[in-house]
Design a protein that fits this description.
The complex is a heterodimer of chains A (about 140) and B (about 220). Chain A has about 140 residues and is α/β, with parallel strands linked by helices. Chain A has helices at about 10-25, 35-45, 60-70, 85-95, 105-140, and strands spanning about 5-10, 30, 50-55, 75-80, 100. Chain B starts with a helix and ends with a strand. The chains are: A alpha/beta (about 140), B alpha+beta (about 220).
Chain lengths: ~140, ~220
């Protein structure tokens, strides 16, 4: 099954071309041109990873990251930024981002980060499931 | 505050404004570069995917058209940034308030866009000229636009018009918050920070607030 990605950026030309290039690399891509739209898409569909611009009108990438992580802690979110400073990267990682990549991004690097994010998500889900099973077994004396 | 402290404060205000505008402009240029990067990458992808590396001329034209659009966009931003950088060349000069307001709004358009506030500039019937320091005037107009936008809130609007009557010239900012907005009215505290007061003093203007009407004016007195 193809890796699913939600691309979020207010630059429509960027979204259009990036989604075409990601699709040609085997990704199943959905797009949203604002964080609000991304939230609406996330209500209906789950993704392996979200790639989201840091600076957008209205709810920006950083705020959206916090909202999404609060609702779906296992969601892997890669932020894109025009200027990826160390401070920004630390702030993003602390808030739960999987990574912060500077624009213009190398698509192969981004594709690799998405694959890694998916693997991390699966690992997290497995770990959570194991913990839940362990908890049930302990409670019911298994 | 003594003269030196006022000068220091004014310089701080200026640097902060210059930094903010430069950061916004360069950020937007990075977006242009990112789109050009994706388009050139797409050309590479298509060349690799097609047999014998041949891409249809229609496809090539569509992609190069998109690259040209971004080159023009980046060039326009750089031109604005260059003009802005020259704002502080002359200490005092005759400036047309309408032109400075339009330029300042254009320079900060991305930042206003981020706030999702509509800014409308209503032209005056004739030029409204004053003698001022262009850079600090832009700074004051930007502060006013930003404060008005913050008070209007997301989905609201700000209307800017010009005043020229009985020895007064000025700019009127009218704030229209979104109908269902619960935005707190902060008009009373407006322009009360040290930075605001230093700038107002330096530019020789007065600020008139009409709290009920959600309006404020930047006013200069003299012969115009």
């Amino acid at each position: 099954m193809a890796d699913t990605v939600l691309l979020v950026d207010d630059e429509k030309d960027f979204l259009e071309i990036m989604s075409m290039r990601m699709a040609s690399r085997g990704f199943d891509v959905d797009t949203a041109d604002s964080a609000d739209e991304a939230m609406a898409v996330l209500e209906k569909k789950d993704f392996d990873a979200i790639v989201m611009d840091f600076q957008m009108p209205g709810l920006d990438g950083m705020k959206a990251l916090k909202v999404i992580k609060a609702k779906k802690p296992e969601m892997q979110i890669i932020l894109l930024s025009g200027y990826a400073t160390v401070e920004k990267a630390v702030e993003a990682i602390k808030a739960g981002a999987s990574d912060l990549i500077e624009k213009p991004a190398d698509i192969e690097v981004l594709a690799e980060k998405i694959r890694k994010a998916k693997a991390d998500k699966l690992q997290q889900i497995e770990k959570q499931t194991e913990e839940r099973v362990k908890d049930i077994l302990q409670r019911f004396g298994g | 505050m003594d003269h030196t402290e006022r000068q220091t404060k004014l310089t701080e205000q200026g640097l902060s404004y210059f930094g903010r505008m430069s950061a916004s402009a360069t950020h937007e240029i990075k977006n242009c570069l990112a789109i050009m990067n994706e388009n050139s990458g797409l050309l590479e992808d298509l060349g690799m995917l097609s047999k014998e590396g041949v891409i249809s001329s229609d496809r090539v034209n569509a992609i190069t058209g998109k690259i040209k659009k971004q080159i023009k966009r980046a060039n326009d931003i750089l031109k604005k940034l260059n003009l802005f950088s020259h704002s502080s060349d002359v200490h005092t000069e005759a400036v047309d308030l309408q032109e400075v307001v339009r330029f300042t709004a254009d320079m900060g358009s991305r930042l206003i866009e981020m706030k999702r506030v509509a800014v409308e500039i209503i032209p005056a019937s004739s030029a409204v000229s004053i003698n001022s320091n262009r850079f600090f005037l832009e700074n004051m107009i930007w502060r006013s636009m930003e404060k008005a936008s913050d008070m209007s809130g997301e989905g609201g609007s700000v209307t800017i018009s010009f005043i020229k009557d009985n020895g007064r010239a000025g700019i009127l900012f009218a704030i229209q918050p979104k109908a269902d907005s619960s935005k707190e009215d902060k008009m009373e505290d407006l322009f009360s920070s040290e930075g605001d007061l230093v700038l107002i003093d330096y530019l020789g203007l007065s600020v008139e607030k009409q709290i009920e009407k959600k309006e404020f004016r930047l006013l200069w007195e003299g012969e115009f």
